[in-house]
Amino acid sequence: MNHAKPLQMERMLTMYEKLGDERLQQLVDAFYAQVFVNPIIGGLFQNSDQETVKDKQYCFLTQYLGGPLRYFEKYGNPKMRMRHLPHKIDEGAKDEWLRLMKNAISTLDWEEENKTALYNCFPTLAAHMQNH
Length: 132
Fold this sequence. Notes:
This protein is mostly helical. 58% of the residues lie in helices and 0% in strands.
């Protein structure tokens, strides 16, 4: 008679759960501190309320990284590609966005392997926003 216990699967934490709300807010703040003054992509936000932009990014990243549906609950369906279509986002803008995100991630007090895993969530997303 086999008395082996059934294999129990541990649930993997989402990137959002690993990151946490406080660190996510730090990431958004560090990212936009660079973005709003950036000569390549800063102009995309010249007529935008900076706090609203940051809140939308915070809510979107919460959802994108596996957390609660904050963006959907507050702003509706993200439809990020459609929302970015009015703006010219070429390869240079995409690359600059990724560079600034990598810089922002590097400011977090977090293990390097987690920083790398977090950054790796973004290249495909950034490529999806490219429209020129």
